[in-house]
Amino acid sequence: MSSASYNNIKIDLAALRYNYDQIGKLVGDRVRIMAIVKSDAYGHGLLPVAEVLSDAGASTFGVAETEEGVCLRQAGCEGEIVVLLGAPAESFAEVIQYCLTPVVYDLANLAALSISAEKKGARVGVHLKVDVGMGRLGIMPSELKLFVDEIGRLPGVYLAGILSHFPLADSNQSSPTLEQGRRFAGLAASIGTASDGEMVCHIANSAALIRYPETYFDMVRPGITLYGCYPGAESVLRGKLSLRPVMSFHSRVLQVKEVPADFGISYGHTYVTGRLTSLAVLPVGYDDGYLRSVTGKAEVLINGHRARVLGRVCMNACLADVTDIPGVQPGAEVVVMGRQGDDEINADEIAGWMNTISYEVLCLLGGSNKRLYIYD
Ligand SMILES: *Cc1c(COP(=O)(O)O)cnc(C)c1O
Q: What angle do CA 291, 309, 243 make, to 5 degrees?
């Protein structure tokens, strides 16, 4: 263990590789995979994740902003890098220099990109984003022809792809997703003749790639499944795709002490002991991404047992009840997320305590702590 911090996020790169391979087997050889590595690879670390996925055969990466694409390129990433939020004019020089593929949805932005590309003698491939029902980024289907014609007319840019995104692929209601998939298929078919044939169509996120093979088109865009979490009700999805969690959060006990019954614990004394209690002080708090909202709900693993977190979570500390766990000593390993002994606390369980989703838990914990990379 490093002396730098009590808390470590372990990133299991072999699990990442496993998940990528499983997704590849599920979608088959003919469907490309755009590995979604935005937001520092969901808190797992952009570069180490991209390196493992490249080794595994990934040749397309999805980032949110230009800056992340530049970072990937500078580290030697050779695949196609799609910038999902598109590129602002200030970043066109980098888009061209680093051969990034921006998503487009704005005519003025396209025209400006065309001028920049022409000046540099470059041809920039763009992916056109259409909104088939997400209600977020993208042009409306009625604007498709206008955009396709414009991209065809403008020098320096070409239509390399068309994409959309599903709002409900993780819900139990399949009809909206299937309907949106059909709408997307229709739109893609309508421009098929306008592109020069190298255009890729893609819409499926993790939930869709598990549930709806009819939405694969040329490429799927897994994010959360790469990192080993299931989008939506796990029991339904586990049977279709086997995944291993990539991130785990390890800490250690700072102090163990006995406090009497009727003893107030932590700020506000929101918890008062009902019995003689053995208390483990842990160096884990909301600054480490262990949000204050887990107060009253959270548990951690110590010596292979679940220990309840008592009282309010503080900035850098929280308290665990180890009364019923024999032999807990200062320095004992604490698993905040991950497996210890026969038990496991996964990102979904923590997300439940925080009233959020696993995605946010991974970003929070991964972004707030030192990461250690392991491959075994
Ligand atoms: C984040 C994102 C994804 C990945 O979604 P998951 O649910 O994590 O698989 C796919 N496509 C777009 C456009 C995204 O923004």
A: 65
Q: What are the DSSP calls for 57-69, one per residue?
A: T--EEEESSHHHH
Other Cβ atoms less than 10 A from the Cβ of 217: the count is 20
Q: What residues are in contact with ligand 1 under a 6 Å CB criterion?
A: 36, 38, 84, 165, 205-207, 221-224, 231
Cα separation, 212 vs 345, whole angstroms: 29
Alpha helices in the chain (DSSP H): 13-27, 38-43, 46-55, 66-74, 92-97, 107-119, 144-153, 175-191, 206-211, 234-238, 347-354, 358-368
Q: What is the pTM of this model?
A: 0.96
User: Which atom, in ligand 1's list, is nearest to the CA of 221?
Assistant: 10
- Where is 305: in which H helix or E strand? strand 305-310
- Ligand 1 pocket test, pick from 40, 104, 215, 221 with the greatest ligand atom count within 8 Å of Cβ, gives 221
Question: Does residue 119 have an active-site annotation?
Answer: no
Cβ atoms < 10 Å from Cβ of 56: 16
Active site residue 42: no
Distance CA 201, CA 188 (A): 7
Mutate to test the pocket of ligand 1, among 20, 23, 34, 36 (most ligand atoms within 8 A of CB): 36
Give the Cα separation of 102 and 229 in Å (integer). Answer: 27
Residues pairing with 80 in the sheet: 60
Q: What is the pLDDT of residues 276-310, one digit of tens each?
A: 999 999 999 999 999 999 999 999 999 999 999 99
Residue-wise pLDDT for 139-177, tens only, equals 999 999 999 999 999 999 999 999 999 999 988 889 999
Portion of the chain with pLDDT greater than 70, in percent: 97
- Asked if 124 and 95 touch (Cβ cutoff 8 Å), the reply is yes
